[in-house]
What does this fold into?
Amino acid sequence: MKYPVTQAVRVLRAHEVLFVPHQYAWTEGGGTAASAAALCVPEHSVIKTLVMEDDQARPLIVLMHGDKQVSTKNLARQIGVRSVQPCKPAVADRHSGYQVGGTSPFGTKSALPVYCERSILELPKIWINGGGRGFLVELDPKDLQRVLQPTLVDVAVDG
It folds into this structure.
């Protein structure tokens, strides 16, 4: 199968991560519900890569289940800052080097702290953005933990 060789794919290869590439027809605003439906996988196992910033405008990445939302209040409390909010799309693109809708936590333009919802690591496999719109990679969450070494948090709330 031919798939894009993005910066994320280069990072995964460099770390010898076994992954399965999946491409699908991306639609504006479709989010994880659309990608999960296109790939016939549970939305809970499709992981969102969210670029956010703290009250000092320092960027960070939050990895969250597709069917959950981030409690920014709980996140701020757990990471020791006053507040956290999502970045505007243009700002998120600038920090990550990816286009919103195609943001991967692997191979970001600058090194950003990564916070991962703890329960993601309990899944048998996950689907996460591979660095392009309509492009997810399927992998073992243990590889995500090994490569990114994220700080684990408990900030999921029902969407």
The chain has one domain: 7-158. Residues 31-39 form the longest helix (9 residues). The two ends are 34 Å apart (CA to CA). Helices lie at 7-14, 31-39, 72-79, 89-96, 141-148.
